[in-house]
Specification:
glucuronosyl-N-acetylgalactosaminyl-proteoglycan 4-beta-N-acetylgalactosaminyltransferase activity, CS_glycosyltransferase, five-stranded mixed β-sheet, Spore Coat Polysaccharide Biosynthesis Protein SpsA, Chain A, Hexosyltransferase, alpha/beta, golgi apparatus, six-stranded mixed β-sheet, Nuclear Transport Factor 2, Chain: A, extended, 3 domains, about 40% helix
């Protein structure tokens, strides 16, 4: 029994005892080898070390140091002085950063459209093509040999200077390589005698991979049949991928020298086939390039074939009128298709909402439109506006009610017409509705969905038997927000010099001192890139005595004083004589004295100009694109706004200190080239009516004659001191009325004026 217990203990502890014994034995052996090596003399040590280097290095103790001579040891530990050598600063490497993020990231636009036109058709078919497709694509460029002196407005035309067809095709492809090959993934070329359904081309391109070498259009056999392969017939247009053009680029000169052809599309097709071995295809991975050949004198409205209805391009088009008829026909098809898709989606939403947690309530009305905004607090509750057919009870000037006019009147009329039309669509032929009057109308703008309306209508209802009666019915309507679109704008910088133009009359002299102080602190002292110019306006009597009694002598003395104070600053002035001050006549004089690319800021002497506004003037004024008319903050009359109160040193943007004067159009930012182009369009009307120049201001001139974007916005950085503005009765009635209203509204707020009247009445009663 004891023996079995001993065996079991030994069996469990045996491996441990054997392991410990083996470890001690190996450690004793290694210590004996190391001690033997350390007892060897110095001379023998070198031999041993060299002969058994690997063994001794592995067995040497970690803290053992080889014995060396004392001199060598001292030299090894003696400190050394390393001389400091200053590194010569190298010129910093200039880092190039792209102007746009898309360029730096290698992002490209999807489709480039090139239209092949000619001198004889650019003003007819070319214009029709531009009007039907240019607003659908990011860029449309018209390529021609020679062009007329007068190019249609709004068209980007590239002229190659020669009417040879093959030469023009070669120059067109070369121009693409030089300017657009790195900006677009696909290139679409079409003649000006073909109609293009723009949306379908865009859908086709969106489903094509950009890295494919693809040559797509209507395949055509080469003339004579000697050349293998097929080219794309140019009449129906064709698509070229960027990858294919990049592969073709090194051989373009060879194509010009080696390939002979009478047709540009055939020449390009042979070039592509010979050097890239890519044939024209009409179908690729299930995507088809549909086209339709239009018969002579055919009417698009009578074409009912499915081939015609699904066509991407239609050719040939004989005249602009036929182009517009085709555009109307295909637009109606796409519009009806859109309505059908909307109805289908609405039905699907209703069917799915039945199985939702909240049932049909989860399907908001109208179906497919975002749900109404839900306020989180009482301060976020949207306000409803009450209106009738003649008046609205929510006015800009805080009046209790005002006349319904302009776009508001058109909006209400459209909503009433739509409401009756929708009721008839729902209940006819059983019932027919006619509007008698609007009893109550409410509307509010919901930023998440659009404009909402609630209407109480008094209607006349007529049934199928001809019996009628008058009823009152409440209807709800929503004008949803459409798809938000980013409009591409030309690139502008804040480095442009601004020429500030200040017209001065006899009554404006008292404001000059304050204006120069503010302008000097904001522009002269900070070296702002701006030039100040004064326009001295004399009447005939004042001009006769200018040598003896110059009414602007004090102003000129102040100008000289500032020029001496700031030697780098020059303040020019221009003197004019006139009986009737007219803004356009003054600008004609200033325009002739400045270069075409000058950026003007036309302002008043009571305006406080600072650097913040000048930068916005530069950014919002775009040459050949946009002019800027800021709405300044007009200070109230201090006697009214601060009656029996001390006047503050600075005026803040608060409702009791002033208001944004929406009736003033005195300040304007625009380029001289835009002014000259607009002014030239007035010549015919001025010849018929000589008083036109005196009846218009600069704002009305740009609105009526320029064709540019007129950008009008409140400008918090532009303050104007209170002043009574003399109104010129020789201007148009509308401009004169605006001036009078501006003076009246600039006196003070309604509550301030009411308080003055109350105090006056109370003083009279006592």
């Amino acid at each position: 029994m004891r023996f079995s217990v001993f065996i079991s203990v030994l069996r469990s502890l045996g491996p441990v005892v054997i392991g410990i014994s083996l470890g001690f034995t190996l450690s004793l052996l290694s210590v004996s080898w190391t001690e033997e090596a350390c007892l060897v003399g110095s001379g023998e040590r070198e031999d041993v070390t060299s002969g058994r280097d690997g063994l001794l290095k592995g067995a040497r103790k970690p803290n053992s140091i080889p014995a060396v001579n004392d001199a060598d040891s001292e030299e090894g530990f003696e400190p050394r002085i390393v001389p400091y050598k200053q590194l010569q600063p190298s010129a910093p490497k200039k880092v190039f950063r792209a102007k746009y993020i898309s360029t730096e990231l290698g992002m490209r636009e999807r489709l480039f459209v090139g239209v092949l036109t000619s001198k004889n058709t650019i003003n007819t078919l070319g214009t029709a093509v531009n009007r039907t497709i240019s607003h659908h694509f990011d860029i449309v460029v018209f390529f021609t040999g020679l062009r007329n002196r007068k190019v249609p407005h709004g068209m980007f035309v590239v002229s190659h200077g020669d009417e040879r067809l093959i030469w023009n095709m070669f120059q067109t492809v070369k121009y693409i390589f030089e300017h657009y090959i790195n900006e677009y993934d696909w290139f679409y070329f079409v003649q000006d005698d073909a109609y293009t359904e723009a949306d379908r081309i865009k859908v086709l391109v969106e489903h094509l991979s950009m890295d494919r070498e693809l040559y797509m259009g209507r395949p055509e056999e080469f003339i004579g049949g000697e050349t293998e392969g097929k080219y794309c017939y140019g009449g129906f247009g064709y698509l070229l991928s960027r990858s294919l053009l990049l592969r073709l680029q090194p051989f373009l000169e060879n194509c010009r020298n080696d390939i002979l052809s009478s047709r540009p599309d055939e020449w390009l097709g042979r070039c592509i086939i010979d050097y890239t071995s890519t044939n024209c295809v009409a179908e690729y991975e299930g995507l088809h390039y549909h086209h339709y050949e239009l018969g002579k004198n055919s009417d698009p409205s009578k074409e009912q074939s499915e081939e015609f209805r699904s066509a991407l391009t239609v050719h040939p088009v004989s005249d602009p009128e036929q182009m517009y008829r085709l555009h109307r026909y295909f637009s109606e098809i796409e519009l009806q298709r859109t309505y059908d898709e909307i109805a289908k989606l609405q039905a699907e939403i209703k069917n799915v909402s039945v199985d939702a947690f909240e049932g049909n309530r989860s399907s908001q009305w109208p179906v497919g439109v975002s749900p109404p905004f839900e306020p989180k607090s009482r301060f976020e509750v949207l306000k409803w506006e009450y209106f009738t057919e003649e008046e609205i009870y929510s006015c800009v000037d805080e009046a209790p009610k005002c006349e319904l006019r302009g776009v508001d009147k058109l909006d209400v009329a459209d909503v009433l017409e739509t409401a009756v039309q929708e009721l008839n669509n729902k209940y006819m032929p059983t019932l027919h509705f006619k509007k008698q009057q609007l009893i109550n109308g409410y509307r509010r703008f919901d930023p998440t969905r659009g404009m909402e309306y609630t209407l109480d209508l008094q209607l006349e209802v007529v049934n199928q038997k001809g019996h009628s009666r008058s009823i009152t019915k409440r209807v709800h309507l929503v004008r949803p927000l459409s798809l938000i679109e980013i409009i591409p704008m030309p690139y502008v910088t804040e480095a442009t010099r601004v020429h500030v133009i200040i017209p001065l009359t006899l009554d404006d002299r008292s404001f000059v001192t304050r204006f120069l102080e503010v302008f000097a602190s904001n522009a002269f002292e900070t070296s702002e890139n701006a030039v100040l110019t004064f326009l001295f306006i004399y009447d005939p009597v004042e001009a006769q005595h200018v040598s003896q009694n110059d009414i602007f002598a004090g102003v000129k003395a102040q100008i000289n004083a500032y020029e001496r104070k700031f030697p780098a600053v020059k303040i020019p002035w221009i003197s004019v004589k006139t009986e009737t001050p007219a803004p356009i006549k003054f600008m004609d004089i200033i325009s002739k004295k400045h270069p075409v690319d000058t950026l003007f800021f036309l302002a008043q002497v009571s305006t406080n100009v600072n650097a913040e506004f000048l930068n916005r003037c530069r950014m919002n004024s775009i040459n050949n694109w946009q002019v800027f008319f800021p709405i300044h903050f007009q200070e109230f009359n201090a006697d009214v706004a601060y009656h029996n109160q001390p006047r503050p040193a600075t005026v803040d943007l608060v409702k009791d200190a002033g208001h944004f004067d929406r009736r003033s159009f005195d300040e304007a930012c625009f380029y001289n080239s835009d002014y000259m182009a607009t002014r030239s369009r007035m010549v015919a009307d001025v010849q018929e009516n000589e008083d036109l120049l005196e009846g218009l201001d600069v704002y009305d001139m740009f609105v009526k004659y320029s064709g540019l974007h007129v950008f009008r916005a409140v400008e918090p950085a532009l303050h104007q001191q209170y002043r009574y503005q003399p109104c010129n009765p020789k201007l148009s009635e509308e401009i004169y009325h605006r001036c009078v209203q501006s003076n009246l509204e600039g006196l003070g707020s309604r509550s301030q004026l009411a308080m003055l009247l109350f105090e006056k009445e109370r003083g009279n009663s006592t």
